[in-house]
Amino acid sequence: MVEFNNPRSGPTRTRPDLVAGVVFVAIAAAFGWGATNYEMGQLIAMGPGFVPLSLSIILGVLGIALAVFGRSEGSDVPGSVPWRGAALVCISLVLFGALSRDLGLLPIVFLCGFLTALASPQNSIVSAGWIAAALSLLCWLVFKVGLGLSLPLLGPVFGSYQIY
After folding, report:
1. 21 touches 49 (CB < 8 A)
2. Using CA atoms, how far apart are residues 149 and 60, in angstroms rounded to an integer?
3. Whose CA, among 59, 106, 134, 137, lies 20 to 30 Å from 114?
């Protein structure tokens, strides 16, 4: 059987890609505009607006690329909403805001990382634990060792086991 090249049979730009790209550009524009209210500084001595503006530019470029080049093999029919993942991520954010001062850096990063890792159906409880442990270690290395911030590693909930 002879197969003809049909220009419509290939990947096509999907509506979700276009909408996501436009949303990324809108968020980038809002944060970029807000960042202009702060001093930019120089590359060697960055001001408080430098990083937000830089990230806004990167997000805007990615949003434009997604809107223009976003292609998908599937149809435009959206899939089911991953309610479990959305709920776990939202719970993780609420717990971080509510318990970060009491638990300290390592426990709250581990807890939130664990819950967020469980949001993916591809992760088991064991792999979520490893992901959370690696994320906690990375936060310790970046914030305590690398930047030397005085964040308590264990909060007041742990009593005499507080580590600074």
Report:
1. no
2. 31
3. 59
